[in-house]
Amino acid sequence: MKKGWLYIAAATILFSTLEIVLKEIAGDFNPMQLTMTRFLAGGIFLLPFAVRAVKTRGARIEARDFRFFALLGLLGIAVSMTFYQLAIMDANASVVATLFSCNPAFVMLFAALLLHEVICRRNLIAIALEVFGIVFIINPFHMQTEPNGIILTLLSVLTFALYGVLGKRKCAKYGGAAVTCMSFLFGAAELLAFAGFSHIPPFAEAMTACGLDAFANIPFLTGYSMDNLWLVLYVYIGTTGIGYASYFTAMEKTSANTASLIFFFKPVLAAVLAFFVLHEAIPYNMVWGIVLILAGSLVNILPGLLFARGKQAPAAEAAEKGLH
C-alpha cells in the first residue's frame, strides 16, 4: 500500500507539470508534430507494461480488437490530444490543467449514458460542483482567457472522457496499461499518416487558406535543439511514459478510486507551479473554480476511500492478532 502512495505521488507531480512544460516548448514545435511524437514515445515506453498485463490475464489480442484500438487512438489521441495541445497554445497552462482535471466527472456521465452504469446522488452532486467550477474559471461575463483556448480545452476534456469510457470495455480483458499503450501507438500512427498527407500541395494550400496552418506541411523532425532537449525528453519519457506507468501501477497497488486522487491534487499543484514558473496570475474566479472542482472531486472520491479504509482495518487487526 505504501508503494502505491509513492506511485500516486509520482504520477501527480508528473501530470501536474505537463501543461507547464508543454507551454514552454509549444513555440518550438507544430502542435500536431508534438502530439504525434510524444504519444509514440509514450506508447513504446508502456509496451513492456502492456505485454505483462496481457500475459497476467492470459489474454490474447484478437484481430477485431485492433480496429477498436485504432478507433480509440483516433478519438483519444489524434482528436482529443490535438485539441489539448492547441488549447495550451491559446490558454494559460493553469486553466488547461484545472479544466482537464474535471475529466473523471465527465467519464461518470458518459459511463451512465453509454454503459448504463448506475449514477448515484453523490455523483450528480460531484458533476454539478465541477460544472460550477468550470463556469467560475471561464467567468463568461468578464472573460479574461482567450475563448478559443477554453473551447479547445473543453472539447479535449469531453473527447478524452468519451475515450476513457469506450476504453473501459476492453480494460477488464486486457488491462488499463495494454489498452492505453495500444491506443497511444495507433493514435500516433494515425497522426503520422495525417502528417504525411498534410504535405500534399492541394491539401496544404486548402488548410492554409482556411487559417489552419498547424494542419499543413506538418514537420517530423524540426524544432529539436540542445536548449529544449531535456524538456522534450521530460514530456516524452517522463510525463507521458513514466507518468502513465505510475498511474496504472498505483491502481494495481491501491485501487482505481484511490489513484483518482491524482486528479484531486493536480489542479492545485499545477496552478501553483504555473504561478511560480510561468508567472501566470491566479485571479479570484480561478481560486473559487478550483475550490468547487476540488469539492466535486472530494464528494466523488471520499466515500470510496472511507469504505476501503474500513475494509482494511479489520484485516490489519486480524493480521496483528495472528502474530501474537
UniProtKB/TrEMBL annotation:
InterPro entries: AA-Vitamin_Transporters, EamA_dom, EmrE-like. One of its GO terms (cellular component) is membrane. Residues 3-138, 149-300 form the EamA domain. It is found in: Membrane. It is a multi-pass membrane protein. PANTHER family: EAMA DOMAIN-CONTAINING PROTEIN, INNER MEMBRANE TRANSPORTER. This is DMT family transporter. It comes from Christensenella massiliensis.
